[in-house]
Amino acid sequence: METERLRLSPIGPHLTDALYRLHLDPGIARWYGEWTRAEAEARAAEIGRSWQRDGVGKWLAHHRQSGELLGRGGLSYQDVDGARRLEIGWAVREAHWGSGYATEIGLAGLALARELGAKEVVAFTEVHNVRSRAVMERLDFTYCHDFLHRGEPFALYAISLGD
Prior knowledge:
Layout: E1 6-10, H1 16-22, H2 26-32, H3 37-54, E2 58-63, E3 69-80, E4 83-92, H4 101-115, E5 120-126, H5 130-138, E6 142-149, E7 152-160
Helix pairs in contact: 1-3
Keywords: Acyltransferase, Transferase
GO molecular function, one term: acyltransferase activity
InterPro entries: Acyl_CoA_acyltransferase (IPR016181), GNAT_dom (IPR000182), N-acetyltransferase (IPR051531)
């Protein structure tokens, strides 16, 4: 998939090295922890299975012209509030924060959700992650409530995609 500035490649085992490099970025590691190569390999395989099983998953985002690895994002199914829900997320390298790439990844994910006929998409982040919350609001998500995820307080947002 391509957007105005991005080439989005579905993550699978063949992209383990790039996924690992991405998660070495200090701005991404701050939110997701420092991954080992083995963790990146397991996660890439899991995302690849998600694409096959569910028709959704995360992409790696590269700049269309330079080829630079900028981030990742996309859709996945998550158990949220006791239900399996379609979730969207993004992570952008710290050097590119504030450049609109997270919003662009989010718009691409919402376009895919609409193509798939989804009625709703949720997004969540740590309550103090103001940058991610701002992206959710730019994408017209509505704040729902805080909840505990992995023992930490997270903010849940949702968007209705209509009938």
